[in-house]
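Notebook p. 47: complex prediction with S-adenosylmethionine.
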Amino acid sequence: MTTFEPTEFLEWFQKAGGWYNDKYLGLKPFKGMGYGAVALDRIPEDAPLFHIPDSLILSPFTSELSTKLSEEEWPRLDHGWCKLILVMMWESERGKESPWSGYLSNMPREFDTPMLWDDEERKELVGTDIEDRIGKEEAEKEYTEHLLPVIKAHPELFPPSSTHHTLDSFHLQGSRILSRSFTVRSSRFNPKDKESDGQSDFSDDDDDEDQIAVMIPFADMLNAAFERDNAHLFADEEINDEDEDEHERGKEKGKGFTMKSTKVIEKDEQIYNTYASPPNSELLRKYGHVDILPLPSDLLALLTEEEIGGWGYGNPADEVLIDGEMVLKCVEKVTNKQQGEDLDKWKGKMTKRIDWWLEEGQEDMFPLSLSPEIDESLIAFIRLLIHDQEWLRAKKKGKLPTTTIDNDVAVIIREAIQSRLSRYIGDIRSDLSIIHSLDIDHIPRPNASTTQADGIKAEAKGEQVNAKNLRKCYAAIVRLGEKRILKVALRIVEAQLNKKRKAEDQ
Ligand SMILES: C[S@@+](CC[C@H](N)C(=O)[O-])C[C@H]1O[C@@H](n2cnc3c(N)ncnc32)[C@H](O)[C@@H]1O
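Predicted complex, C-alpha cells below:
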C-alpha cells in the first residue's frame, strides 16, 4: 500500500521548516491501516504534537507552477481539483528539485478506493450509496478536457516520456487528494480573495465558496476511527496566545497549522484525527477502508438474530440515503398514476411542491440510520407530496409539514425501502458468509457460537487475503450495514401498518 519511509519523511519535514515533538510522537504501521502516529510517552491534553507552516502546505498557491503558465491557462484550470492535481503532477516531475520531494516520494501509490476497482469488483457495490457516487467517467473527462491541453502545451514542464502526468497518475493524485486533503479557506493564501472575516481558516464546511482542498504534510499521516479521535488540527490563529511559549513551533517561519492532543493519550496508543465519522459507504469511497466496531447493545437490540448472524460489528454511523427522486417514483407507483394528461398535470403539481421544499433550504436526500426512528424530514417530504392540505398549509404559512407517520406515509416508505433492498446483490446471509470466509486479519470473525454463524461457517472457504478479497469483504460490510438499516426501517413502517390494520379489524 505504501512506500513510506518514516525516517526519510521526518528528516525532510524538519529540514523543510516543520516541527514535531519527537518525545511524544512516532510513526509506525498499524494492522489494516497503513502507517499512523503513535504516542511514545503519555501525552497530556492540549499538547502541541506537530506544526506545519503555511509555506509547507502543498497547494496551487504555494507551488510555483502558476508562474510557469500563461495568465489565460491558469484560471482555466479552476475546475474541481484540476489545479491541485496538476501541481502535484508537476512537483512529482521535479523530483529532488521540488520543495515537497520528501513528501511526495513518501505518499502511497496504491489505493483501495472503488474509483480504482475493476468492473467486476464494482458490481459488488450495486444498490449501495456508493454506486452512483464514484464518478470515474466525470473525473476522466476533467483530465481530458482541462488538464491534457495544458500538459500537451508545455512539454518543458511535462515531458511527453514521463509517467507523472498520465491518466493513471491523474487517478493516483486524485486518490491522494480524496483520502488525505484538508479543506482550508483560500483567502489564507490569496490576499486577493475576500478577507477571512474572523472565522477559522481550517474548516470542513463545504458550503463556503472560499474553500479549497490542500495537502498538509504530516497532518495526513493520522488515521481515524469512529469516535476515537484524540487529536485535532488547529489553524494557529485559533490557538490561545498563552499557549504560544509551550512549544517552539518555529514561529519565525510564519503561521500555519498545529496538531494538538484533545485528550490524554496513553503511551503506545494510536493518535487519531477525526474524519467526522462518516458511514462506511463514504469511508470506502474516499479512504478505501471501513470502520468495524462492536455495535452498542441499543443498536444490536434493533436487529434480529439473522441480521446479526453472529457478527455484532459494524459502523454505528452507517446510513442509507433515500433519494427524493426515488420517493417521488414510489408516490407515483403507489397512487397508481397512469400515462397521459393526468400524469403530466400530477407531475407539474409535484414539481411545484418539490421546488418549494428546496427553496426552504431542505435537502432531497434523506438519511436512514440504525435507529428506532424514521428520519423526520423524509416523513415531512412525503406528507408534502401526498397530502394536499399539508401543501396548502405549507404554502400559506411557510411551515414545513408535520412529521407523523400515518398509513399513507408508511406505505410510501415501505415501497421505497423494498425498492432499495431489491437492488443489492445477495442477501444478509450471503454478505455475512463473505465476511466470514475471507481470512482478513484486521476484520473480526463472526462468532461461531450461534446457530446462524454455524450455518455460515459451513460455507466458509477460508480464502486468503489479497486486494481482491479485501475489496469484496469491504463491499459486503457496506452492503450488510445498509441492509440492516433498511430492514429495521421496514419493521418500523410495517408495525405502523399492522397497528392500523388491527384497529380497523376491531
Ligand atoms: C490520511 S491517510 C492516514 C495515513 C495512512 N495510513 C498512511 O499510511 O499514509 C488516510 C488513509 O489511512 C488509512 N486509514 C485511516 N484510518 C483507517 C482505519 N480506521 N482503518 C483502516 N484504514 C485506515 C486508509 O487507507 C486511508 O485512506
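Notes: The chain has a mean pLDDT of 90. The chain has 19 helices and 15 strands.
Next step: compare against the earlier run before touching the bench.
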